[in-house]
């Protein structure tokens, strides 16, 4: 039978880990946006060699499920880290790298390919006439960018960024496979204690659902506030 | 090392059909349910259409892994509660049902704007020519909806393929399951290599699907 009291306890228990999960998601969002900007710039200015590498990177990540990439990185990232550390001549053992770092790096890399597309698309959405107008007013390149292009591109990208944030939160649920404790892992731990799997999974699904709705509502309202009327 | 690798590759080839079957069946279930869902949401039948909207937001915001677990652990518990008798769900069925249903939420969000993209005047023109609603849908609306919806649908299919990589979590021995088994048996094969092979297999499935959808896009493009 579905036990309401147990569900309530689960709900509170899972909520306790929510701040950490959100923090992981925010870190991923920030890192992937920064990397996304770099990827977008490389593609925009067609920097030789790097642009081909970027394309290959995007192609690989588009075809690879995140869980496969996560396992790949789980084994490969410490090895890569060790290689770099040895190359730099630092004596440090990378093999005890925290799973949290691996999760954040993996999801950030995957999400960065989406972010770069969002960023490219939102810059293209700014009317070229505006850039010409700014140039004719004698604005420098950086003035045009920070005063004209960036504010409009940002507004355009808000709904997609909200989407990316949801993707990042959902992706942290894979963390339990490599022992990172987020809200989903917490639900599994609590379920295993009293075998109330359905209650635990329903409660964690409700929390994810609530977060999803909140993010969409918040992003819509924010977009309305900052959009030029 | 050599025999271990050979055995692993054979294992991958043997279990790959499981992934493909689940992809095909959940895509079919998803398509069927999405058509129904879109129809209900567009008609705005009170309460039902709001429930459908809620369902879509649920499918889009809850991770696939959790929906998989809810289906696997939840269905056998919920069915007796609503008087449908006991049923021990197999992991395969749980995977197809959960993947199919949440895929339907995604593609319903692709179909709805595609339907709304058909100009209102076209509806009116069809009405004035005396088309029945069925004729109007199949002869006027659907042919215009398909080219608009196809790119989004192709994307959703790629995501579905990605998500079948999670089914090993409920004990299905698919390609990921085979990898897990071989790692626990430790043939001494490099784990990085194993997951790299799986990544390539999924990539191949995604690119084949992508290519097929693009071909279809070219064929149905409005000229």
From TrEMBL, chain A:
Any single Gene Ontology cellular-component annotation: ATP-binding cassette (ABC) transporter complex
Gene3D superfamilies with a match to the protein in the record: MetI-like
Coiled-coil residue spans: none
Protein keywords: Amino-acid transport, Cell membrane, Membrane, Transmembrane, Transmembrane helix, Transport
Keyword Glycoprotein applies: no
CDD domains: TM_PBP2 (cd06261)
Keyword Thylakoid in record: no
BP GO annotations: amino acid transport
Domain (ABC transmembrane type-1) ranges: 18-219
GO MF, any single term: transmembrane transporter activity
Membrane spanning stretches: 22-42, 63-85, 197-219
Membrane topology: Multi-pass membrane protein
One Pfam family here: BPD_transp_1
Cellular localisation: Cell membrane
PROSITE patterns per record: ABC_TM1
Family recorded in the similarity comment: Belongs to the binding-protein-dependent transport system permease family.
PANTHER family for the chain: L-CYSTINE TRANSPORT SYSTEM PERMEASE PROTEIN TCYL, MEMBRANE COMPONENT OF AMINO ACID ABC TRANSPORTER
Protein name: Amino acid ABC transporter permease
């Amino acid at each position: 039978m579905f036990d309401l009291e147990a569900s309530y306890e689960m709900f509170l228990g899972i909520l306790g880990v929510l701040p950490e999960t959100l923090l992981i998601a925010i870190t991923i969002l920030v890192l992937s946006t920064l990397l996304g900007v770099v990827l977008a710039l490389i593609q925009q200015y067609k920097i030789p060699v790097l642009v081909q590498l970027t394309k290959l990177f995007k192609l690989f990540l588009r075809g690879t499920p995140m869980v496969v990439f996560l396992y790949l990185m789980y084994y490969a990232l410490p090895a890569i880290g060790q290689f770099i550390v040895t190359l730099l001549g630092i004596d440090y053992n990378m093999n005890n790298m925290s799973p949290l770092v691996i999760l954040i790096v993996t999801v950030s890399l995957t999400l960065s390919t989406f972010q770069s597309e969002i960023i490219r698309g939102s810059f293209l959405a700014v009317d070229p006439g505006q850039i010409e107008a700014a140039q004719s007013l004698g604005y420098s390149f950086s003035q045009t960018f920070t005063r004209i292009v960036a504010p409009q591109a940002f507004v355009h990208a808000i709904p997609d960024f909200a989407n990316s944030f949801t993707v990042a939160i959902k992706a942290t649920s894979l963390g339990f496979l490599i022992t990172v404790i987020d809200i989903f892992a917490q639900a599994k731990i609590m379920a295993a204690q009293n075998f109330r799997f359905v209650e635990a999974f329903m409660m964690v699904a409700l929390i994810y659902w609530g977060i999803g709705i909140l993010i969409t509502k918040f992003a819509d309202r924010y977009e309305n506030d900052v959009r030029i009327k | 090392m050599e025999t271990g690798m050979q055995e692993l590759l054979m294992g991958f080839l043997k279990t790959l059909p499981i992934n493909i079957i689940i992809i095909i069946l959940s895509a079919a279930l998803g398509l069927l349910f999405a058509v129904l869902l879109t129809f209900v949401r567009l008609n705005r039948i009170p309460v039902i259409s709001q429930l459908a909207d809620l369902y879509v937001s649920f499918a889009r915001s809850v991770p696939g892994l959790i929906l998989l677990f809810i289906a696997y652990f939840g269905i056998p518990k919920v069915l007796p509660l609503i008087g449908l008798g006991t049923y021990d769900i197999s992991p395969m069925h749980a995977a197809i049902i959960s993947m199919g249903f949440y895929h339907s939420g995604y593609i319903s969000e692709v179909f709805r704007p595609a339907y709304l993209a058909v100009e209102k005047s076209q509806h009116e023109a069809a009405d004035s020519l005396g088309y029945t609603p069925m004729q109007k849908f199949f002869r006027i609306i659907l042919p215009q909806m398909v080219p608009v919806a196809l790119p989004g649908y192709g994307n959703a299919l790629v995501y579905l393929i990605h998500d079948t990589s999670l089914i090993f979590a409920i004990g299905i021995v698919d390609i990921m399951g085979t990898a897990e088994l071989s790692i626990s048996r430790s043939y001494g094969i490099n784990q990085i290599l194993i997951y790299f092979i799986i990544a390539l297999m999924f990539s191949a499935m995604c690119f084949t699907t992508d290519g097929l959808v693009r071909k279809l896009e070219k064929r149905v493009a409005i000229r």
